Amino acid sequence: MGLMGVSVGLAVTLLAPSAASAAPVVSQGTGRLVQTSLLSSTVLDTVASLRGAAAVNADATGDVVVNTPLDATAVGELVQLRADASNLFGTNGIIQLGAVGQYGRAADDGSSAAFSGAVSQAASLIGTGTTVTGGDVGSPTAGSNAQVAVGTSTSPVSLNVALTGLAASAQQTADGTQTGRYTLTDGSVIVGGTVLAPTLNSLRGPLTTVLGVASGIGVNVANPIAADGTVRVTLQQLLTAAGVTSVNDLPANTNLLTYVPQAVTAQLTTSVNATLTELTTRAAALGLTGAVLNTALTTARGLLNPVLTGLGATLATNLSPVIDAALQLNVNRSSTSADGAFTQTALRVGVGPNASVAAVDLASATVGPNAGIAAVPVVNPASASIAGGGALVAAAIAALMVQRRRRAATAAV
Questions:
Q1: Distance CA 46, CA 52 (A)
Q2: Given this model, what pLDDT does residue 332 score?
Q3: Of 156, 298, 379, 395, which is most buried, counting CB atoms within 10 Å of its CB?
Q4: Taking CA 339 as the corner, what is the angle to CA 345 and CA 43, rounded to the nearest 5 degrees?
Q5: What is the pLDDT of residue 378?
Q6: Across the chain, what does the average pLDDT equal?
């Protein structure tokens, strides 16, 4: 009764479709690399690849696979976008992407899958053997798939973020279960700017002095504070500051840059103390010759320790607000729309306070709504209008009843 009831109801519905709603489809999945309100509807209407790789299976006559990299026209439109005085995409832009693709798959059984992002992650996210064609938007840092950079050394803060393995996938099974996954396998943040500079100078100065004394007696050790006024922290250091071991352990919509001040504090404290420890060890090995270095070390510690002790509070007070006003990188975003479409997004880039200058979703994957095999028309609506709707519906019902009886008879045997 269930099968016949569903099929007959669908036949009648398809003969008299609602003009206000789109016809249901067997399955659908769309991988989309870039979404931003800065792309006008006119551009989206004319540049298909910017709308993503949309696989739509309307009639269950064969699985549909769409593998659509961003083409030259799409890249040309992206590099024209502006975020205040800066290019939003492309070489010298805020966002650069490399070896990234978008992919959708819609199956006859009502299941679907979608992927976008670093093509190296496709097999692990949506199945072994899946090949996604890659493309570039600019030239990100070597070895990375996404680079996001704002500010210069004369800005309150400069941030240069390199991310590897950035990708997202979404899947819907034939029974309607929807899931999403995202990856971010590696990354780093190089932070600088005028707010951080005084703190770095207060560390580099005393270290330069004691390292000069050490060099004078044949002990050569590098200064851990870079001369260019920047500090580099890794993705793992950000995760440690967040108190987790994996990006998958972060709460949904977490801003990774929230943890930069803590990670910088840990990096500076560890590197400075490691340098002082090495100098102390080397001085002890020199005997009387090391006495001059020990004296210099005592002076250096007197200057460095107060800075290190207050470092966490200093950066939390001074660095956190300027980072948040410049850039946000929110990971692990997912949503379900009113019609049942599920979307997983790997990263949202926000430029300006609360993304007021630009908000860009990178690597999104959407599946559904999938109607499954029930979406396949039992009766061709065009034929129904020619032959007379009522008679054709009756014929369809009769055919379904015969089909059900045949299945029952087969089962009995």
A1: 13
A2: 87
A3: 379
A4: 60
A5: 62
A6: 88
